[in-house]
Amino acid sequence: MNYPLDGSIISIGIINLLPTSRGQITLATTDPTAAPLIDPNFNWTHFDRAVFRTAMPRNMAAFETPEARMVVAEEIPPPGYPALTSQRTEEELDARVRRAAASFYHTDCH
Questions:
Q1: At what angle do helices 90-100 and 46-62 cross, to 10 degrees?
Q2: Cα separation of 81 and 89, whole Å?
Q3: How far is Cα 58 from Cα 55, in angstroms, rounded to an integer?
Q4: Distance (Å, whole) CA 60 – CA 4
């Protein structure tokens, strides 16, 4: 996406610091120098999706206040997805989580 770098765009991040989903690493070939296939399997479990499903409406509600409306005009959703409000369905939230949510869990830091 091509956003202006003029301070008119803000971003809110939701971080699941303790995901329960587990991915897998498999060998791509028999060549030991070849990079492995890595599937992080982000947000596969109901718990991981519930973390985002709980936090997202709270963030959205904060930006629907009169004070926030003075500085935030609208959400810019990922391409092909509708803008969300705090009055959204769980299906809409799950679709956004599948499209845009990730983990900041560092597998080498535990």
A1: 100
A2: 13
A3: 5
A4: 22
pTM to 2 decimals?
0.66
Alpha-carbon Rg of the chain, whole angstroms? 18
- Segment 63-88 shows an average pLDDT of 85
Please answer whether residues 51 and 32 qualify as being in contact, where contact means their C-beta atoms are separated by less than 8 angstroms.
no
Q: Residue 107: its pLDDT value, please?
A: 55
Taking 50 as the threshold, does the pLDDT of residue 110 lie above it?
no
CA quadruple 79, 83, 88, 91: dihedral, nearest 10: 0
Q: For residue 82, give both structure tokens.
A: 């509708």
Distance CA 20, CA 51 (A): 11
Amino acid at 8: S
